[in-house]
Amino acid sequence: MLNIDLHCHSTVSDGLLTPTQLVEHAAARGVEVLALTDHDDIGGLEEARKAADKNGVLFIDGVEISVSWRGQTVHIVGLGIDPADPQLVEGLSTIRQGRTMRARNIAAQLDKFGIHGSFEGARRNAGNGLIGRMHFARFLVEQGYAKDVRTVFKKYLVKGKPGYAPHQWVSLSEAVNWIRSSGGRAVIAHPGRYKLGKDALEELLLEFQTLGGEAIEVVTGSHTFEQSLLFANHSRRLGLLASRGSDFHGPGESYFDLGGMPPLPANCAPVWHDWSGLM
């Protein structure tokens, strides 16, 4: 069975490794098929593809798009996209402009709580990439406000906490349309993370499918074993394809290392079922 990881991040968004380092790490971990899915940015794909060619890894062009759905942020992964597609490129550019505004709003909220210099600290952590919540989390760890980034998110950066800043992302239909227009396959990322009741989750899945979405992440870093079984059942019941991805951000910050997740549960149709040479 091939070791396939279809969700990870580089320094282009909020990962710790450059695209080249990420691919080299994946190869060392025995990953045979890898998708780079940076948040709202495809700037690392060319570098990653070159590194994959050198390291014998089959590379899939990807992205993770931020979506607002009924007041909640949902992430949609695009797999097998065309990074040169004009509609996708323009749409992602619009989101990135909004990310800068959100970063300043997060910093303003932390200022009110007495935590100063967070925008500069997050920007330093981001380097030349987009500033995201993970960069604020790393700054707060550096300053001693929490022991690790997971604790920062729980104490400071989620809804109802001091550093939370609401933001309106793109719609679900826009994200799915951009992915499909570029020849890609749309996947709901880590569905178990969203605070949705049973009925709302069903409505999200059905709306996503109606719009042309094709898959859900069944095995992913933040899913428990029970959640993987639950979403495997959802994928079979609705005829959605099943994806597998670590959501790796860097050593010490992720639930699973690259390629270290369990296999897909039995009787799921893999998102890669019709990819040449993989079945």
Automatic annotation (TrEMBL):
It comes from the Bacteria. InterPro entries: 35NBP, PHP_dom, PHP_domain, Pol/His_phosphatase_N, Pol/histidinol_Pase-like. GO terms for molecular function: 5'-3' DNA exonuclease activity; 5'-3' RNA exonuclease activity. SUPFAM superfamilies: PHP domain-like. Residues 4-69 form the Polymerase/histidinol phosphatase N-terminal domain. The lineage of its organism: Bacteria, Pseudomonadati, Pseudomonadota, Betaproteobacteria, Nitrosomonadales. SMART domains: POLIIIAc (SM00481). NCBIfam families: nside_bi_sphtase (NF041577). This is PHP-like protein. It comes from Nitrosospira multiformis (strain ATCC 25196 / NCIMB 11849 / C 71).
